[in-house]
Amino acid sequence: MIDRPVHNSDEPVAESGGSKIPILFGAIVALVGASVFNFYQMSQLRADLSETRLLLASEIEQVHQTSSGSSKSSRAGIDNLRAELEAAKQVASKLAGQAKLDATHHADELAAKLELVQETQAAQAAEQTAKVAESVSAVSTEVSQVRQDASTNRERVGEVSKEVATVKNQADATRAELEKTIAGLSSAQGDLGVQSGLIATNGKQLAALRALGERSYTEFNLPKSKTTSRVGDLLIRLTKTDPKKNRYTIEVVADDKTMEKKDKTINEPVQFILSRSTLPFELVVNEVKKDAIRGYLAAPKVQQARGTN
Fold first, then answer.
1. Which residue has better confidence, 10 or 215?
2. Hey, CA dihedral for 80, 84, 90, 93, is it positive or negative?
3. Average pLDDT over residues 191-201
4. Could you tell me how far CA 205 lies from the centroid of its own chain?
5. Which of 28, 66, 96, 144 to pair with 81, CA 20 to 30 A apart?
6. Burial class (CB in 10 A: 0-12, 13-18, 19+), 288
7. Phi and psi of 222, rounded to 5°?
8. pTM for this model (two decimals)
9. Angle at which helices 203-212 and 71-183 pack, to 10 degrees?
10. Of 232, 222, 199, 213, whose CA–CA distance to 287 is shortest?
11. What DSSP string runs through 77-131?
């Protein structure tokens, strides 16, 4: 009886980090090839066993025909042959079982590797999904903040627009009131025979004149005194008042000269021509009291000495 060695065709599967699936597919193909090869070996083994049976049967027949020895020796020879046949069957059975076990073990290893790859890919996909979800959440937060800021800015713009509209309305109302007030003002001829500017008779009208910006205005409340008081560019002393007739008398020092303005009435432009200006200074008294007068001094904003260009 000649034992035929069985060649194990299984080869270790080399893994590659960048091509695991193709390697698994190749391993499965290799497993199928190994199974086909084992099937081929088993077929050959069955053929050999059939041939062995024929040879044994032939030898037994020859033993029966040629044997003239004792029955004990014949039985012993037959038993030995039968033992060899049984051993051959067991070897064949073991070989077939081992091939099956090897194939099953190899398939289990491939399944375990495939499961490991799937788990790794699932973990990577879960990690990427978590990162994407985190990025989406961060972007959503930024978008929400931008929307909130935009909403806040719109509210602020709306508030500012309302404030601007309110200020504009107030400015329009003030301008209209100013124009109305200025329209109610009048001018008069001064005591020097020069036509005066607009005359203010109260604080509201004086504020309107200031808003025009054509002259500089200095208000005063001047009591009777033995000494002069400075009002703008002039030194003035109140010498006499007549509240019943709304008249007053003052002394004015200008350009080192003293001038008396006697028995002047309220809201009358009292004019002074100074050497540093071609336009007159105008003093207007709006109220005459027993011991004081109240009014304002209007001075030209642009002053130029007479006789100069």
1. 215
2. negative
3. 82
4. 55
5. 96
6. buried
7. -100, 120
8. 0.45
9. 110
10. 222
11. HHHHHHHHHHHHHHHHHHHHHHHHHHHHHHHHHHHHHHHHHHHHHHHHHHHHHHH
Type of residue at 295: G
What is residue 16's predicted lDDT score, i.e. its pLDDT?
47
User: What residue type is 46 in one-letter code?
Assistant: R
Alpha-carbon distances, residue 122 vs 20, 115, 119, 126 (angstroms): 14, 10, 5, 6
Which helix (H) or strand (E) covers residue 187, if one does? strand 186-189
- Beginning with the edge strand found earlier in the chain, give each strand of the sheet holding 281-288 in spatial order: 215-223, 292-300, 281-288, 270-272
Structure tokens at 258: 């003293």
Average pLDDT over residues 280-297: 95
Which helix (DSSP H) or strand (DSSP E) does residue 265 occupy?
strand 257-265
Calculate the average pLDDT of the chain. 79
Measured CA to CA, the distance from residue 217 to residue 301 in angstroms comes to 10
